[in-house]
Design brief:
single chain; 277 residues; globular; two-stranded antiparallel sheet; 2 strands
């Protein structure tokens, strides 16, 4: 149990700015193992974002609250996944060779594809949060926490089904999980299921229903399917373009999966609310 707590704290340290306590220590092998707790670490990030959103709603208009929430999570994670999204879009946006794509992704400068991707993804995320909050502010908070959690299971599965395609020397000099076991994927999925159950229970306590329809149960189902399809398509595309994944592509997949989750929540919630309006 102590070792699992250690791995969770390493996952939090890896995905955010929050340092692990000194007693945790470090072993390079733990970096591969800690990925099993990525969804739980993501839920913590989402919870901070939800609190920021709720506080923002108490003081500012809805649009400002949504942007403040996003600013909080981006700061908390050090734009870790957003950086991967920008680098991936720069590297794979054009019709260039695999070797050229990998070289572009290593470049710290941002290009047109990366800048456009960041603006569009952050814009869609803000719009989805705002529209969800129009339906019910607590629904937006639940979607925020769950989306951050479930989307971080996507890179874990991707690392399991696709090989590492980056520079092995680069991976040795920069902390990166490159090997994932089936048991790690299973734990990550268990966390996702448990967090989904908690979201459903919280929705029941908050009475987020549309007449006799369990709103969150339907949105969770749609969001899970949306993330699964998105991650599968990403795996197929990355195998074709790069022969596998890199650290940057993992961040990109997380961002795309989070968007897919939020849009699924919004689409189903709007449809159910409209049909029972």
């Amino acid at each position: 149990m102590r070792h699992e707590l250690r791995l969770f704290l390493i996952a939090v340290q890896f995905l955010t700015r929050i340092p692990a306590p000194a007693w945790v220590g470090f072993d390079a092998a733990w970096l591969n193992q800690c990925v099993r707790h990525f969804p739980l670490a993501g839920a913590c990030v989402g919870l901070v974002g939800a609190v920021a959103f709720a506080l923002g709603l108490a003081l500012f208009p809805l649009s400002v609250a949504a942007l403040l929430s996003m600013m909080t999570t981006v700061w908390l994670t050090g734009a870790f996944h957003e950086d991967g999204l920008a680098d991936t879009c720069d590297g794979l946006g054009g019709a260039v060779s695999r070797e050229r794509s990998l070289k572009i992704m290593k470049d710290s400068r941002i290009g047109t594809y990366g800048a456009c991707a960041l603006m569009l993804v952050l814009g869609v995320k803000a719009a989805a949060l705002i529209e969800l909050a129009h339906l019910h502010p607590l629904l937006a908070c639940l979607a925020l926490v769950w989306g951050h959690a479930a989307s971080r299971a996507a890179p874990v599965w991707l690392m399991w089904v696709t090989p590492y395609a980056g520079d092995p020397e680069h991976a040795r000099t920069k902390p990166l999980a490159t090997q994932v076991r089936g048991s790690d994927v299973a734990v990550a999925l268990v966390w996702t299921v448990l967090l989904s159950i908690l979201a459903w229970l919280a929705a029941g306590w908050l009475d987020l229903r549309v007449d006799e329809v369990d709103l969150v149960a339907w949105t969770l189902t749609a969001a899970c399917l949306s993330i699964a399809v998105t991650t599968l398509l990403a795996a197929l595309w990355l195998r074709k373009r790069l022969g596998g994944f890199t650290g940057d592509t993992l961040g990109a997949v997380q961002q795309v999966a989070e968007i897919a989750a939020l849009l699924a929540w919004l689409a189903v919630a709007q449809a159910l609310a409209g049909s029972h309006g």
